Amino acid sequence: MPEVTAAATDGTTAYFDGYGLVGLMAVLGVLFVAVAFGAGRLLRPVVPTPEKLLTYECGVDPVGEGWAHTQVRYYVYAFLYVIFAVDSVFLFPWATVFAAPGYGAATLVEMFVFLGFLAVGLLYAWKKGVLEWT
Questions:
Q1: For the chain, how big is the Rg over CA atoms in Å?
Q2: What 3-state DSSP class applies to 72?
Q3: What is the arithmetic mean of pLDDT over 92-111?
Q4: In this predicted model, which residue has the larger pLDDT, 91 or 1?
Q5: How far apart are CA 118 and CA 124, in angstroms?
Q6: How far is CA 4 from the centre of its chain?
Q7: What ranges in the chain are assigned the alpha helix state H?
Q8: Three-state SS for 60?
Q9: Is 113 within 8 Å of 85 (Cβ atoms)?
């Protein structure tokens, strides 16, 4: 009968086997992507022409310079969207944890801290005048 060591009885080998499986899947994923990119590079035809090297977007030929001025307010709108999207994404799991017995007070405090951070972002946007449509 084989001997059982102390390390095998306390469950650490089973614990680290899970990490080994995750590592193996990560290596296989990276290898799959590398093989796919390598096969694409080897099998594609390479015939550069001036038309192929031209900047192309949505079927419209480029006119003028490549630099375009974008107003900062569009980035601020994206920032506001992220604030509210993150808020809604985190409220659903919070509601399920809050309903579980024994987690009420700690979960409630954590959610108010989270909502406080979101409120600071919203207050910043309001002070900057981003919420006014002109």
A1: 27
A2: helix
A3: 74
A4: 91
A5: 10
A6: 44
A7: 6-9, 12-43, 72-99, 104-127
A8: strand
A9: no
Q: Which residues pair with 57 in a beta bridge?
A: 60
User: Is the whole-model pTM more than 0.70?
Assistant: no
Structure tokens at 11: 């469950």
| Confidence at residue 38, expressed as pLDDT on a 0 to 100 scale | 96
**Tokens, residue 73:** 């307010």
What CA–CA distance (Å, rounded) separates 125 from 76?
8
Closest CA to 80 of 25, 123, 33, 47: 123
What amino acid occupies position 38?
A: G
pLDDT digits (tens, 9 = 90+) for 47-64: 888 877 777 667 666 676
131 vs 38 pLDDT, higher one: 38
Cα–Cα distance for residue pair 73/85, rounded to 1 Å: 18
By three-state DSSP, how is residue 88 classified? helix
Q: Cβ neighbours of residue 98 under 8 Å, at least 6 residues apart?
A: 104, 107, 108, 111
